[in-house]
Amino acid sequence: MKQDRNYSWQLPDGIDELLPSQAAHVEDLRRRLLDQASRWGYEFVMPPLAEFTESLLVGAGEDLDLLTFKVPDQLSGRTLGIRADITPQVARIDAHSLGDRQVNRLCYAGSTLHTRARSLLASRSPLQLGAELYGEPGLAGDLEVIELMLSLLGEAGVSVDSSLSLDLGHSSVFTHVLAACQTDDANMDRAIFDALQRKSRPDLERLLEALPAPGPDLLGALLELHGDLSVIDVARERLADLVPAIDGPLRELRRLADAIGARYPALDMYIDLGELRGYRYHTGVVFAAYSRGVGEALARGGRYDNVGAVYGRARPATGFAMDLRLLAAQLKAVASPASAIAAPVTEDEALQLEIARLRASGETVVVALGDCIDERCSRELVLDNGQWTLRDLDRKAQNGLKS
Description:
- The protein is an alpha+beta fold.
- The protein has three domains: 11-158 and 298-336, 2-Layer Sandwich (BirA Bifunctional Protein, domain 2), CATH 3.30.930; 161-293, 2-Layer Sandwich (BirA Bifunctional Protein, domain 2), CATH 3.30.930.10; 340-397.
- Helices cover 36% and strands 21% of the residues.
- It has 13 helices and 16 strands.
- It has helices at 20-39, 53-56, 62-67, 87-97, 139-156, 171-181, 186-197, 201-208, 215-222, 230-239, 247-263, 324-330, 349-360; strands at 43-44, 50-52, 69-72, 79-82, 104-111, 127-134, 164-170, 226-227, 268-272, 285-291, 299-303, 317-323, 340-343, 365-367, 377-384, 387-392.
- It has a nine-stranded mixed β-sheet, with helices on both faces. A four-stranded mixed β-sheet has the order 14-13-15-16, covered by helices on one side. A three-stranded antiparallel β-sheet has the order 2-4-3.
């Protein structure tokens, strides 16, 4: 069947492109955010777009595996995965390529690809930017990466005040509660995790009907334990007697929340002990930043200790990531005033030398092909008494450039 040419230009659902003004906005964000991360001591790395799946997905969890496109490698016959998340790749770099360092601070930015969108607002081709800290197991590490995340959002133009909500949770709370329920059924465990991850009360209640007491009460409570800092105390009262192991994670979460509150008193903090909307490799504190009126997190992250063990080096690790496309779409691009320089089409050697000099000094010079002056130009090169000089461009009298 012959393909209809009227549809040959269409992109797949969830895959988009950036036109010049959008691309300029995203690229400006990328440069500024990476520069800011560098000022915090984070070194830039560039993992490959594709890797063998046994390296890319080992220890990453089922949800990331389902998001990953897999293709045969025609050179080796092995299966390649196109990365859906860069964090495991950076963990590999820390464990395998930078194994002689005690503490590593790494940042990155690159394209990813998902088999399906993770939410209604999400793209299937996120441009992921993030930072990872390896080698620090305590509160100081979690606090640093959250502060860096807030710093990058501030650099992007997001107000770090009551209009920004920082959601905090701890993945170990769910892990310990589930262990106390003694389901002994891996498929049931996965289904419960999925229902909580989607915040689906009907699906969770249906699953809990098959569990003996106190399982339904313990797991059902996780959907209700969200709100201000008092939620941590409520959780201790409701769950700690039956699940003593959660006391440590709750204390850790409270210390972190208190430290953040002391440094950012205007920031709105929200505790959600049923927050599982990251990847399954998270092992401790999880967090996400939401801006008022935006349904998708601007950035999210958490602790994922020992992911590097599969690469031969178990390490404390914590970090965050954001989709630059989503972030840029929520922010107003600052319109750059027209500042380029228009130049006429001519082989005049002096003009060519002047164009080269201006470009070397950082100016944008656009040659007016077909006597068409680029709309970004506010000045022009004109020949005045044998010298090429700059003058303001009179757009009302603009009918082409003459030498």
